[in-house]
Amino acid sequence: MSELDFDVIVLGAGPAGEVAAGVLAAGNLDVAVVEKELVGGECAFYACMPSKALLRPAQALAEARRVPGAAQAVTGKLDPRAVLDRRDEVVHELDDSSQLPWLHDKGIKLFRGAAVVTGEREVSIGGDILRARRAVVVATGSTASLPPIEGLTTAEPWTNRQVTVAKKVPRRLAILGGGVVGVEMAQAYATLGSKVTLLEPEERILGREEPFVSQQVADALSEAGAEVRTGVFAESVVRKGGKVTIALKGGDKVVADELLVAAGRKPNTVGLGIEQFGLDEGKPLETDDLLRVKGHDWLYAIGDVNGRVLLTHMGKHQARIACAAILDESAKGLRRIGDGPQSPRVVFTEPQVAAVGHTEASAREAGINVRIAETETSGNAGGSFYGHDAPGTSRFVIDEDRDVIVGATFTGVDVQDFLHAATIAVVGEVPCSDLIYCVPSFPTRSEVWLNLLDEMTCH
Ligand SMILES: Cc1cc2nc3c(=O)[nH]c(=O)nc-3n(C[C@H](O)[C@H](O)[C@H](O)COP(=O)(O)OP(=O)(O)OC[C@H]3O[C@@H](n4cnc5c(N)ncnc54)[C@H](O)[C@@H]3O)c2cc1C
Fold it and tell me: Residue 31 C-alpha to ligand 1 middle, in angstroms?
C-alpha cells in the first residue's frame, strides 16, 4: 500500500474528467486521475462516438443519392458489416491505449480501479491512499437506468453498452424510450436492416423539443421502416426461446430479438463513499455554479454525475468552470455557468435536430413575451446544392421585450454546424437589430438567417 499526495484527484476519465485533468495539469498542478474501466469514458466507447459511427454511413449514402450527378454513381446498398467494422475502428476495439500518451505527456498520473472517497480530500484505490491538497473532482458519469417493469432485468435487455458495440444486427429490435438515444439507435438499426419498433409512453418522441421536431423525426423513422408507437406503456417483459416479448398496457404485445432500454440515466454515485458526507448514494451530486458539491468546498462534481445536463460538451464546459475555480480560488471573472436543459444540443438523426435555448413552449412557460420566426431550412440557394428532398424547418423564439433570440431550433440535413452561430446569438444576447450586420456568405445555407431576420422584421 502506498500513500501519495497530489494537488487534485479526478475520479473518472470520461470527457469531463479528462478535460479537468488536462486543464489542471496545464495550470501546473500535480494531478491524479482514477479510472475503473476505459480512459475516454462512456462517451468514447459506448455512447457519442459509436452511435455516430453507426448513423453516419446511411446518411452519407442518402446524401449522395439526393444529389444528381453523384446519385448515378451510387449503385450498391449500405454494407452493415462494413458499418460495424468502421464502428469498431472508431471505438478502437474497446482498447484505450491510444488515449494514454496525452495523460503521460501532461504529467498526469493514472490509477486504474474503482475510487472510493474515504475522507475529506482522501481517496482509496485498491490498496493505495491518495490525498488531495486542494480538491477532489468527481466525474464518474452515469449508467442507463432500467424502469421498474416486471421481468425487465431478467430479460437481458440491451442498454447503450450493448447497442453501441453489438457485433450483429438483430432481425427485430424493440426500443423502450423515444428520447435522443432511442431515436438515434432506432434510425441506425433501421438503416442497418433491423425491424425496429420504438415504444414511447409520452404522446410524442423527443417531447422536450418543438413539436415539428417530433413529427419530422417520427416521419423519417417510419420512412426508414421503423414502427413508432407513442402513448404506449410496457407492463412486463419476458425472454424465452431467444426472443423477447413486451406486453403493453391494453393487451398488445411486441416481439423482438433484442430489447434496448433507452429510458434515462442514473448518476454513478453508488459505492463512491459519499454518504459519510451526508450525500445520498444513487442521487446526482448537487452543485453550485462553480460545480462545488453543496456544503463541501473541496469536492467538485462535473459531467453527468451532477445531473445538470447530460451532454459531453456541457460536461467539458463544467470541467473548465470547475478548474478555473480550483486554480483561482477567488474565481474572479467567472460568469454564471449557463448549462441546463437549454444548453446547445444535437440529435444526429436524419433530419438532424440542432437546438439551443428555449422552445416556444418553454419560453411561454417562463413568462417571456414570445414572437416566433420560422422558415424552411433549405429554402435558399445554398440549400439547393444539398439535392432534392432535403426538407427541414428553422425557428427562432424571440423575446419581444428584450429584442433578443432566446431559442433556436433547426431541422434538416446536416444542420449541426448551424448551431454554434445560434448559440452565440442566444448566449451572447446579441440584439436582433445587430444581427442584420452579421452577413452570411452566398451561396451557403446560413442564408437561412436572412429569411428568419426578414420574418422577425427587426431592422
Ligand atoms: C448512446 C448515447 C449517445 C450519446 N451521444 C452523445 C452525443 O452525441 N453528444 C453528446 O454531447 N452527448 C452524448 N451522450 C451523452 C454523453 O455520453 C455523456 O454526457 C458523457 O459521456 C458524460 O461524460 P462524463 O465524463 O460525465 O461521464 P462518462 O463518459 O460516463 O465517464 C465517466 C467515467 O468514470 C468512470 N468511473 C465511474 N465510477 C468510477 C469510480 N468509482 N472510480 C473510477 N472511475 C469511475 C467510468 O468508468 C467512466 O469511464 C450520449 C449518451 C449515450 C448513452
Answer: 20
- Which of 18, 33, 38, 48 is the pocket-test mutation for ligand 1 (most atoms within 8 Å of CB)? 48
Q: What pLDDT is attached to residue 335?
A: 64
339 pocket-lining for ligand 1 (C-beta < 6 Å):
no
pLDDT in tens, 356-384: 999 999 999 999 999 999 999 988 999 88
3-state secondary structure the chain: CCEEEEEEEEECCCHHHHHHHHHHHHCCCCEEEEECCCCCHHHHHHCHHHHHHHHHHHHHHHHHHHCCCCHHHCCCCCCHHHHHHHHHHHCHHHCCHHHHHHHHHCCCEEEECCEEEEECCEEEECCEEEEEEEEEEECCCEEECCCCCECCHHHCCECHHHHHHCCCCCCEEEEECCCHHHHHHHHHHHHHCCEEEEEECCCCCCCCCCHHHHHHHHHHHHHCCCEEEECCCEEEEEEECCEEEEEECCCCEEEECEEEECCCEEECCCCCCHHHHCCCCCCCCCECCCCEECCCCCEEECHHHHCCCCCHHHHHHHHHHHHHHHHCCCCCCCCCCCCCCCCCEEECCCCEEEEEECCHHHHHHCCCCEEEEEEECCCCHHHHCCCCCCCCEEEEEEECCCCEEEEEEEEECCCHHHHHHHHHHHHCCCEHHHHCCCCCCCCCHHHHHHHHHHHHCCC
Q: How far is the CA of 169 from the centre of ligand 1 (A)?
A: 24
pLDDT in tens, 281-306: 999 999 999 999 999 999 999 999 99
Q: Could you tell me if the CB of 361 is within 6 A of ligand 1?
A: no
Q: Which pLDDT belongs to residue 44?
A: 98
Q: What is the Å distance from ligand 1's center to 290 Cα?
A: 20
Ligand 1 centroid to Cα of residue 40, in Å, is: 8
Distance 52 CA to ligand 1 centre (A): 15
Please report the pLDDT score of residue 339 as a whole number: 79
Check pocket membership of 313 for ligand 1, CB cut-off 6 A: yes
Of 43, 45, 91, 275, best ligand 1 pocket probe by most atoms within 8 Å of the beta carbon: 43
